[in-house]
Amino acid sequence: MSDPLTELDQRHLWHPFTQQSDWCDEEPIVIERADGTELVDTDGRRYLDGVSSLWCNVHGHRHPTIDAALREQIGLVSHSTMLGLTHPGAVELAARLIELAPPGLSRVFYSESGSTAVEIALKMAFQYWQQRGGEDRRSSYVCLTDGYHGDTVGSVSVGGIDLFHGAYGPLLFDTHRVDPGDSERLECVLDSHAGEIAAVIVEPLIQGAAGIRVQPPGFLRRVYELCREHDVFLIADEVATGFGRTGTLFACEQERVAPDFLCLGKGLTGGYLPLAATLTSERVYEGFLGAHSEYRTFFHGHTFTGNPLGCAAALASLEVFRTEETMLRLQPKIRLLGELLSGVAAMGEVAEVRGRGFMVGIDLGDHDPALRLGHRVTLAARERGAIIRPLGDTVVLMPPLSISKAELRRLVAITIDSIQAAYASAYRADPELRAAA
Ligand SMILES: *Cc1c(COP(=O)(O)O)cnc(C)c1O
């Protein structure tokens, strides 16, 4: 490799969710800057950011409002702790989030990643029931098959993607698994384990990392009702679906669901900085109140919890939602994307197109994993000017909400070409394989 940056990367870096021996066989793209919906590499080549820099960018890169808010905050303070102190951004953001979130949520606990937002909800739910007194010490969770809630040990325990989680089995705590859509089984589990279950955790409406799997309409609402009937907490992990992705600000809104915990991350800062939040109810909060000597404190907090720069970016992002009427302007783009995708669904190479709003999975069907068809689509898309990242052989499209209609058309056109190119390269050696696929 002639490029010194590439050489150093391959010598010292270890990339997430990456087989490094594959990584070192390929020439990486080095992103130097970005502008709106486009990423720009060190050679000046431009790429549409087709997956919002891993599902988090909302209003585009270098948005003037968010950039200005960050500059202003840097001029004040970049970090100060939330342990024993507070700061204006954290307070104002908490109040804004409570205004916008589903009803019943009144408290905000900050952290830095989606995984920790989930970890915090799990621990709060657990400790709440431990401290409630009496016999009611519930300590298990119900989660959905193929769910994904992050990569820390607690969030992996409630996750269900074997490919990611299989290796850690002995480290994880046991959970009850229910298939998405199977509310009868959920009812059965809640009945037969009454008094044992602390919380049910779901990704509302869509399971992202599972391959953009859409739940049947009404399922989320039914989960909510069953949690209410059985007095079990509902944890809604909106780390991926939050901040407009599914067409409403939060996915829970679409089925009038008011969870006991709402986990936010990814898009919270407009996709600028690592900030996350776990919102909960006054009931949960009050379960932790008491005299100092009772030690009902929530003993949890991260060094950069509620970081002022993160809060400034998040406040600015919410301001952009308001001033640019982001959600209103998103609706015609969702319709256009739907029209463009009907062309994709009709392709012979495509098994199924799934999704809601700006969360789309294009499933290429069953192929030999060694062919790495999804990855080939990614490589072909780069040559054509778009960055996308698949989940196995499901091609994911999740553009920033700010993408223009022309860019959206270009993104889908590149995806179509890239799928065709990937098939051609994967099955070039043996056309019969393709016929059999
Ligand atoms: C990405 C994701 C997480 C984990 O967030 P990190 O910031 O990567 O830790 C949790 N839940 C869902 C639904 C996600 O999509």
Main sheet: strands, sense, barrel: 7 strands, mixed
Helix/strand class: alpha/beta
Ions, cofactors and other ligands present here are: pyridoxal-5'-phosphate
The count of DSSP E runs of length 2 or more, i.e. the number of strands, is 16
* Separation of the first and last Cα atoms: 36 Å
Strand content: 15-25%
Q: State the shape.
A: globular
- Please state how the strands of the largest beta sheet are arranged side by side: 4-12-11-10-7-5-6
Tell me the helix content.
25-40%
Mean pLDDT: 95
What are the low-pLDDT stretches, counting only 5+ consecutive residues below 50? none
Number of helical regions:
16
- Radius of gyration using CA atoms only: 22 Å
Task: Describe it.
This protein is of the alpha/beta class and 437 residues long. It contains 16 helices and 16 strands. The chain has helices spanning 4-12, 20-23, 52-55, 64-74, 88-100, 114-131, 153-157, 162-165, 183-192, 219-229, 282-286, 308-323, 326-345, 373-383, 405-427, 431-436, and strands at residues 31-35, 38-41, 46-49, 107-111, 140-144, 176-178, 197-202, 206-207, 213-214, 233-237, 261-264, 276-280, 352-356, 359-363, 386-387, 394-397. The protein has a seven-stranded mixed beta sheet with strand order 4-12-11-10-7-5-6, sandwiched between helices. Strand 8 and strand 9 (213-214) form a beta hairpin. 44% of the residues are buried. The mean pLDDT is 95. Bound molecules: pyridoxal-5'-phosphate. Pyridoxal-5'-phosphate binds next to helix 6.
Short structural description:
With 437 residues, the chain is an alpha/beta fold. The protein is 39% helix and 15% strand.
